[in-house]
User: What shape does this take?
Amino acid sequence: MTNQTPQSSTFDAVQISPVPDPNAQGQPPEPYQGIYPMPMFVTLPSPDLEESVRFWTQGLGFINLYSMPGILVHLRRWAFQDVLLVGQRDSTSASQAAQTKATQAERSAETGNTPAQGLAGSLSIAVAQSQIEDMIAACERLLPGSTTPPKRVQWRSLEAKVTTPEGLVVTLTAALPEDPNKVRQFLQANGETA
Assistant: This one.
């Protein structure tokens, strides 16, 4: 590894981001089909790979980049939005999941605490504002009750939540255009100048 100075180890990462500029009403890019060393990806166990692939491709707009039938499916949307679905091939995985669920139910009955539904954690996926409504509608058609309506949040985004067939909560997040007056007001309220 080479010795890097602070100047050479930082750069304007907007140059490599596929996320469209919300101020320019940018069009979303097409799914990226190139091959690259993935800097990060999520791996999800799936009890039904066909159902999972259908949901991720038809609902969330991913493409099937590579498959090992019955074993693994590599999905991608934009560059750096990679998901690996891994089939649960043996009954041991299913029985372990059932046992874990039963143990959680016993504990919640004893303590009065309800365990979180689905997988621990969540995944946020950048989308274009022009895509979010159609994605929610498609996911809802494929898996009724899996979505929440889009809403504006404080950090200048439009967001909606989707629960995938694997139990993962995905937040679709679309950046909204900046309002220079609101930015200035925020900076002034926090002791800074614009």
In short: The radius of gyration is 20 Å. Helices lie at 49-59, 91-111, 132-142, 180-189.
